[in-house]
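Can't paste images in this forum, so I'm doing it all in text. The chain is below; anyone willing to post the predicted structure tokens underneath?
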Amino acid sequence: MRYSVLSLLKEAFNGNKGWKPTWRDPEPQAEYDVIIVGGGGHGLATAYYLAREFGINRVAVLEKGWIGSGNVGRNTTIIRSNYLLEGNQPFYEKSLKLWEGLEQDFNYNAMVSQRGIINLYHSDPQRDAFVRRANAMRLSGADAEILNQNTLRQMCPFLDFDNARFPVQGGLIQRRGGTVRHDAVAWGYARGADQRGVDILQNCEVTDFIIENGVCSGVETNRGIIRANKVGVAVAGSSGRVMAQAGMRLPIETHVLQAFVSEGLKPVLPGVITFGAGHFYVSQSDKGGLVFGGDIDGYNSYAQRGNLPVVEDVCESGMAIMPMIGRSKLLRMWGGVMDMSMDGSPIIDKMPIDGLYLNAGWCYGGFKATPASGWCFAHLLAKDEPHETATQYRLDRFKRGAMVDERGAGAQPNLH
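Text version of the structure:
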């Protein structure tokens, strides 16, 4: 079924009795061309682009829970491409361009809202660093503007410009950045992949890899053995645990990252705002709630829950730039498990075991990268060579000393 105004009107007059399931619930086949372990945004996007761009549709996506139960449904929904390093900027700009046409591409309302993102700066050296980043963005084809304090006052009069410790002097704005409805992204990619013949297998947990003579030829699951020519792993915070089943130890630590939503408020934020003197980012949802987050919890964990000291730290950072939010009530909070690489950048690469491929190490930035991550991982699986925008995301960069360290955002930022 293709969604359109006509289909909506038809079902409205028909009591909404004609809607079909968004995707099938098939039984596992004995063999596929490609298995994708992980039914989150990256895994589903990979399957979608494998089928659409490369004509490979004998694909199975294995999800241990249900679609949308992992990080793709546990994030703060921000999309952007305001990066500095040439190893990152072209990749995230490709992702943002894919976001811009995504809803028309897979015929699903993902609520892409390019309301803009503003990174605040609080000192002259920070302003100079943002100017440098803006120039790097423009060189890759992205949009970037530096806002002085007067312009920013007109856009965001509620900011604390007179804060004695963190005075807001201006900001870097990317007007094409914004937010997207996170779980709708998973549903849209799942629907699009399913329509192209991909099998989406929920409640199908991988318990081991089938590795014979240095070649991965499939996986063992709680629903039986499934064989494939190639196996791609995209399981976010579970990367270390899953890849350990293949006898590999990754340069990744798993940490908890919390996110928060306030009670519903009248429209107040023009877009996404980030704190330049701490780790705090906030936007406003379509329901009026302020959606915000900050640093990881700082300890290794696979649990999807956080702790109270980080709640205090994040709220303090928010109060430092927007004292007004102190009057609003916190409605709910949740935690996702982050696969924090040592340099804060991802890994999209073939593994030393033939037939095994990895997509991991996204740290804080996994959601915004979803389309490009899926595209580049699909390219790697189909052609056995990295996409031109992902050539620096090789696993051996840690051995070669070729880290892509954007701002010390890895598992141990104090050591960067």
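The chain has a mean pLDDT of 95. The longest helix spans residues 124-139.
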